[in-house]
Write a structure and sequence with these properties.
The chain is about 0% helix and about 55% strand. It is mainly β.
Length: about 120
């Protein structure tokens, strides 16, 4: 079983940057595809970005394309989400999640709050 812990959230002004980290324990992350999701108040959880187990094939939601970058360091068992040019609409709780091959995202972190003020 893999446990995920997010960190790096906080409050920033529009145009600012944050880097979220997702540290794993219990299992090596190298076998897992990883994703970042977010959920804003009153809205459904949505996928923000995902990356394959080898670090290739990154996917980004249209709303963050060109501003966010997902990466991973399997040696450190950590996945990152670099968020630049933040907008108030990026305000949400951000979660990292892990899945094996074609399976569903079955392992989730507790989330980290990101608040962007205008």
């Amino acid at each position: 079983q893999v446990q995920l812990v997010e960190s790096g959230g906080g409050s920033v002004q529009a145009g600012g940057s944050l880097r979220l980290s997702c540290a794993a324990s219990g299992r090596t992350l190298s076998s897992y595809h990883m994703g970042w999701f977010r959920q804003a108040p009153g809205k459904e959880r949505e996928i923000v970005a995902q990356i394959s187990s080898s670090g290739g094939s990154p996917y980004y939601a249209d709303s963050v394309k060109g501003r966010f970058t997902i990466s991973r360091d399997n040696a450190k068992n950590t996945v990152y989400l670099q968020m630049n040019s933040l907008k108030p609409e990026d305000t949400a709780v951000y979660y990292c999640a892990a899945r094996l091959m074609d399976g569903p995202y079955g392992h989730w972190g507790q989330g980290t709050q990101v608040t962007v003020s205008s």
